[in-house]
Amino acid sequence: MTLKSVPPHDSPGADTSVNLVVVSAGVSDPSSTRLLADRTAQKAVDLLRESETAATVGVIELGPLAVDIAQAIVSGFPGERLQSAIERLAAADAVIASTPVYKAGISGLFKSFADILDNDLLIAKPVILAATAGTSRHAMVVDEQLRPLFAFLRALPTPTSLFAAPEDWGDPALGRRIERAATELVLLLRAGVGRSIADGGWDGYQHQFGGKATRAERGVADVDFSTDLMRLAAGGSR
């Protein structure tokens, strides 16, 4: 399935373009995990188009980044390709996160990618949580494992999560659930709560650089090197 970007509208009421980013941990080709994410992203784009809101969709495939992710976990430093993916995620207005389920757990590749993200990268960012598996016995993994993970990252997951086993693909109920999740995502985007929450709670967070809060848009010049901790880190004394 090819995702279609919505071109900007010329009407005076047109909103600023929305940047959706799909993160898929599927490794097969074709990938049901990617298919679920693509269907969901397309529905969100369609709903945005109906409200005369332009949108673009980017995709981060974690499979080709597996070695980069493993190296970053060991070294503590992401390589160029991985850093580019992280920056694309940081710039997203909303995210669709999709993972396969193995042995009653989310993909280790997906979790490893989450482990290297800055803690502040997804603050108040709307997210649709999605998973696929070979059996419906794994249906609760999305809410039991993905939802707590994104709660820790302080994102804004939609109330409706998505799960698809092989027998679900031909069931109209999956399409209705996708539409409901996409509608919730669009409503969160149109309410504009993400940046206001991120800005309002900034002082209460322990920060690493990144994310969508206005005050996250900082560089080295913004670091206070006069604190006791920074002097010690630089080899000085208190």
What does this structure look like?
- The chain is of the alpha/beta class.
- Helix 1 packs across helix 6 and helix 2 (66-75) packs across helix 4.
- The chain has helices spanning 32-50, 66-75, 80-90, 108-115, 141-152, 172-191, 193-200, 228-233; strands at residues 15-24, 53-61, 94-102, 105-106, 126-132, 156-157, 162-164.
- The chain starts with 14 loop residues before the first strand and ends in a 5-residue tail after the last helix.
- It is built from eight helices and seven strands.
The CA-CA distance between the termini, in Å, is 59 Å
Name of the CATH superfamily: Flavodoxin domain
Shape: globular
H and E string: EHEHHEEHEHEEHHH
How many individual helices? 8
Notable traits:
disordered N terminus; 7 strands; about 240 residues; seven-stranded mixed sheet; about 20% strand; alpha/beta; Rossmann fold
Short précis:
39% of the residues lie in helices and 18% in strands. The protein has 238 residues and is α/β, with parallel strands linked by helices.
Helix and strand layout, with pairings?
Elements: E1 15-24, H1 32-50, E2 53-61, H2 66-75, H3 80-90, E3 94-102, E4 105-106, H4 108-115, E5 126-132, H5 141-152, E6 156-157, E7 162-164, H6 172-191, H7 193-200, H8 228-233
Parallel strand pairs: 1-2, 1-3, 3-5, 5-6, 5-7
Antiparallel strand pairs: 3-4
Helix pairs in contact: 1-6, 2-4
